[in-house]
Amino acid sequence: MATIEFDNVCKSFGDGINAIHELNLKVDDGELMVLVGPSGCGKSTLLRMTAGLEEVSSGEIRIDDRVVNHTPPQQRNVAMVFQNYALYPHMTVRGNLEFPLRMQKQPANRIEASVKRIAEMLDLSPLLDRKPKALSGGQRQRVAMGRAIIREADIFLMDEPLSNLDARLRVEIRGEIAQLQRELAITTLYVTHDQAEAMTLGQRVAIIDQGLLQQVGSPQEIYERPNNSFVAGFIGSPGMNLIQASLSSERGEIGLRLGSKRLPLPQPVLASYPGLASHREERLLVGIRPHAIHLAHADSTQHLAARVCAVEAMGHETILHLDTELIMHANPKTAADKARENQPHLLVQLNGHHNFRVGDQLRIELGIGKLCFFDADGRAIG
Amino acid sequence: MRLNDQTTSALLLVTPALLGLLLFILLPFATALVLAFTDLRLGSPLAVNFVGTDQFLSLFNDPDFIRALLNNLLFAAVVVPLQTILALALALLLNRGLPGTVAFRTLFFMPVVFPMSLVAVIWSLIYAPGENGMMNAFLQWASFGLWEAKDFLRDPLLAMPAIMLLSIWQGVGFQMVILLAGLQGIPQTLYEAAALDGAGRWRQLLHITLPQLRNPLIFVMLVTTILAFRLFDQVQIMTRGGPENATTTVVYETVQAAFARQQVALASAMTVVFFLLVLSITWLQRRFTHHEREVA
Ligand SMILES: Nc1ncnc2c1ncn2[C@@H]1O[C@H](COP(=O)(O)OP(=O)(O)OP(=O)(O)O)[C@@H](O)[C@H]1O
Ligand SMILES: [Mg+2]
Questions:
Q1: Which of A357, B42, B178, B249 has the most CB within a 10 Å radius?
Q2: How many domains does chain B have?
Q3: Residue B41 maps to a domain
Q4: Which of A197, A199, A209 lies closest to A378 in space, CA to CA?
Q5: In degrees rounded to 5, what are phi and psi of residue A59?
Q6: A223 close contact with B: CB closer than 8 A
Q7: Are the Cβ atoms of A73 and B192 closer than 8 angstroms?
Q8: Is B47 exposed, middle or buried (0-12, 13-18, 19+ CB in 10 A)?
Q9: Domain containing B269 — which CATH number?
Q10: Contact B195 A74 (CB under 8 A)
Q11: If pLDDT is split at 50, 70 and 90, which confidence band does A377 have?
């Protein structure tokens, strides 16, 4: 039981690498907070600082209102699941599970009982006398989890614990982790770069990019109201389309100019984004989720012509990469955008299977009620 | 096995090496094995007879040889643990990544590259008798004048320890380098995990470092043990086995028998005993490490 507070925490490594910039974040007692962000954004660094494995360059980390900047890891009562498990290779599964308790000098019978309980909980009983070498990835993962939860730690840190597992096992263990965390109600910081994991697991999600905290909020908040264009592009699979546009007002009616099209904004949209009023005649970014775009009806007046560049058929849904007259905004920070070459495509996510081929012409329509707006610097317009 | 082109050329390529092995290792050893059961003496006009195990019997009734064996055992029993602990301590220190590590590593390793004969000569000077001998002078200074000058190499009680000391000095660098390489192969995350599990420095050494270092440790101890049984150069140069057999060794006795007394057959028997000894140590080591290798 503990709260974790990061107060203006900075971390720079010797050669001018700034891994974390002025981070302010509070994790509540018993909360499962997910840290998510692209590779190299500083997630592990933050976790390691919390564990005491890495020094804080400036600022304060407080656990239960106690500053722990200079507390050695042994005295923080923090349990961690390492990205690579870090099981003790020369010890059996039992030895690994016992180790934290033996370090606490618990009596043998209590250790024995704890090991039994944890082994049953994590289905490890038949494996207790094996060494880590003789375990599968998922089994090692469970041992690492067991070693962390066997003692009553105040805080639970997990660094991409599922990254080495196959998709099925990942979903399964993700569920186990969520359930376990709810049962034990231990404050947990969970690092992942898989945003699907972040969305399903986190009570709150913190998104970090290049050492900067971008947004903290519930998965739904982050999905529906991203703070900035980075979050918009990063969350969701695929992420939000970002389209360059400008606001124009004609005869008192505010509309979006998207390429050669002019899209009047209905009153409800303007009402929920009052900030738009102050951005008239300015360039801005319009964000729209791929599933908020659909094929235009025959009688549609607001359609856009598009050409299919690529099709990803998943069975239950089809993702189309489209070339349109719209100028897409490349979000250079997200990995997905890096993979695409120069001009990003407009992505459309359609339910079910569709028989489109590369080169097909089609007409689409944007769901006008589901737009997000960002100013030229990428900040959300509220 | 089918003799195809590859096998032929492979055989052709290993021939020089095999020939060398045969000529310089297998053949001499086989000869020694045969000679050990005869009464051959160099330069003796008498015919060579097959005497069965007589040589071995006389060997084990020979107080000099028994003393040599005991000396070897004592030497190994003292030098191997001391040298290993010292090497481990040095390796742990150098592994901390403190400034000057490279310089110190080189310094500690330097004695290893010196030929033992040179080391022995230098240490003979260090152990020189009288107050001006370096070791005596140092001990006198360190004990505030309480130390009385000794003639280390001619004192039956001090000769062996003196040789042990210089052997450790000469050998510790080699062990240290091997252990250092082993230490550097231990993943840092194991220490981090142990720290989070509540293990301080000492218990990390006990529960992570030592088990992880198991194989290099066994290796260096084995090599040092074999070297301890091969102890010769120092003895030959510094004490000639004396005083009162205090520093004689199996190899020294063998050389004496073969080249001073021309008892080739007896020397051969000693070689065979020596070989069996080393073989059994190696076998023990294999037994200890084997089960670990399957896992690691
Ligand atoms: N010991 C170090 N010395 C120098 N730079 C470091 C060190 N550790 C991390 N960094 C740098 O700090 C930044 C953040 O690293 P960190 O390991 O926290 O990333 P991450 O978010 O965990 O990435 P990933 O998702 O790939 O694990 C990176 O740019 C990395 O290169
Ligand atoms: Mg990481």
A1: B249
A2: 1
A3: no
A4: A209
A5: 90, -175
A6: no
A7: yes
A8: exposed
A9: 1.10.3720.10
A10: yes
A11: confident
